[in-house]
């Protein structure tokens, strides 16, 4: 079974082909990603109109290249999966219309995949992980703690009430005059910084629900930055280190709460899983690995290339759905918003 996956929800154009591999894992036959970061950098964030145009320009060639890398033709595919949302609607439409056209021409089933679900299932692509597991999904637009019980069965244990973690990293980077996207820049600066120089808050610490709040931390950092301006490189490094340390403390505390609540909704987890762009962060990965170890759980985080947005995760989620007969037709809508996890039953 070979599934093509198309991703155009944000600022990466991606196409990949995945087949079932050994031990329940997936086999990535091709994984092409073209990042638009350079086109958005001057604006300090993703510009939806520029993103949509850039997707149109490269997507067909990228799909052709994925087929070529895999040594396949359209007829060798068993399904066409596409991220139908959530995301920037212009980009989502381009991916979806392309996927529908291919589905029609090649007479292969279309699978409209939720981009967040694809991040959530990546640990099965890479590690063949069994359900259920506790997922920290942290990207530029989303921060959720989710009990992943099965394909299409996701219970939300916590979420952010303001900024997503990646968004907070991006905003802090912007505030400190670092580049976009901010996460990797803040992490790089933090390496040389003193995390204890500034007393930054740990919002939500000790709360009984596994929710996040990050805007207060960002504001506290801004106030410190303004107080000591102009900032020397040392100051920026210390602010980044302080911010990252605060985020790590908050994540660990929120996960502790989610782990406590997991049993009631899904039984015993097989692992703690990190997904989404933020899971590329080394400090967060190390803290999660240590925490999983203490809880006697395996820790699974995708390799860096599969942390951010990519086509392989879309192809894999499509493959998982296709195996269960969960296919879509040509009326599948593009969705700017598309929650994937349900609140727990009261
Ligand atoms: O999943 P993703 O590639 O795209 C979205 O769906 O949002 O996540 C991108 C986000 C950005 O906010 C970026 O700053 C953040 O992930 N990110 C990081 C790191 N690498 C990427 N945040 C913290 N540390 C990193 N090393
Ligand atoms: Zn993403």
UniProtKB/TrEMBL annotation:
Binds 1 Fe(2+) ion per subunit. Its cofactor is Fe(2+). It catalyses: L-threonylcarbamoyladenylate + adenosine(37) in tRNA = N(6)-L-threonylcarbamoyladenosine(37) in tRNA + AMP + H(+). Fe cation binds at residues 115, 119, 309. Substrate binds at residues 137-141, 170, 183, 187, 281. It is found in: Cytoplasm. Residues 28-316 form the Gcp-like domain. One of its GO terms (biological process) is tRNA threonylcarbamoyladenosine modification. GO terms for cellular component: cytoplasm. InterPro entries: ATPase_NBD (IPR043129), Gcp-like_dom (IPR000905), KAE1/TsaD (IPR017861), TsaD (IPR022450). Keywords: Acyltransferase, Cytoplasm, Iron, Metal-binding, Transferase, tRNA processing. GO terms for molecular function: iron ion binding; tRNA N(6)-L-threonylcarbamoyladenine synthase activity. It is an enzyme of class 2 (transferase). Its main location: cytoplasm. Its EC number is 2.3.1.234. Belongs to the KAE1 / TsaD family. Required for the formation of a threonylcarbamoyl group on adenosine at position 37 (t(6)A37) in tRNAs that read codons beginning with adenine. Is involved in the transfer of the threonylcarbamoyl moiety of threonylcarbamoyl-AMP (TC-AMP) to the N6 group of A37, together with TsaE and TsaB. TsaD likely plays a direct catalytic role in this reaction. This is tRNA N6-adenosine threonylcarbamoyltransferase. It comes from Methylobacterium planeticum.
């Amino acid at each position: 079974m070979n599934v093509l996956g198309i991703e155009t929800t944000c600022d990466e154009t991606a196409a990949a082909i995945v087949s079932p591999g050994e031990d329940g894992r997936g086999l990535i036959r091709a994984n092409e990603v073209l990042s638009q970061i350079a086109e958005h950098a001057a604006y300090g964030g993703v510009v939806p109109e520029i993103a949509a145009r850039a997707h149109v320009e490269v997507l067909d060639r990228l799909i052709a290249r994925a087929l070529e890398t895999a040594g396949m033709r359209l007829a060798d595919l068993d399904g066409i999966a596409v991220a139908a949302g959530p995301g920037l609607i212009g980009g989502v439409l381009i991916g979806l219309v392309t996927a529908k056209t291919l589905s029609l021409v090649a007479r292969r089933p279309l699978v409209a995949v939720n981009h967040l679900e694809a991040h959530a299932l990546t640990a099965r692509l890479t590690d063949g992980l069994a359900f259920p597991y506790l997922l920290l999904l942290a990207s530029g637009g989303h921060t959720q703690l989710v009990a992943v019980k099965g394909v299409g069965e996701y219970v939300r244990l916590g979420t952010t009430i303001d900024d997503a973690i990646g968004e907070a990293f991006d905003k802090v980077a912007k505030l400190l005059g670092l580049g976009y996207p901010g996460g990797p820049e803040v992490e790089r600066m933090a390496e040389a910084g003193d995390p204890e120089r500034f007393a930054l808050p740990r919002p939500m610490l000790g709360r009984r629900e596994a929710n996040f709040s990050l805007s207060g931390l960002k504001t506290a950092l801004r106030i410190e930055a303004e107080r000591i301006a102009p900032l020397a490189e040392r100051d920026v490094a210390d602010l980044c280190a302080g911010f990252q340390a605060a985020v790590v403390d908050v994540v660990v505390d929120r996960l502790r709460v989610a782990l406590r609540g997991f049993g009631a909704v899904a039984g015993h987890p097989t692992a703690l899983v990190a997904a989404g762009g933020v899971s590329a962060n080394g400090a967060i990965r190390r803290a999660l690995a240590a925490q999983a170890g203490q809880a006697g759980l395996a820790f699974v985080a995708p390799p860096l290339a599969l942390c951010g947005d990519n086509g392989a995760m879309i192809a894999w989620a499509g493959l998982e759905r296709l195996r269960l007969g969960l296919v879509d037709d040509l009326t599948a809508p593009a969705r700017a918003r598309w929650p994937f996890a349900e609140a727990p039953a009261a």
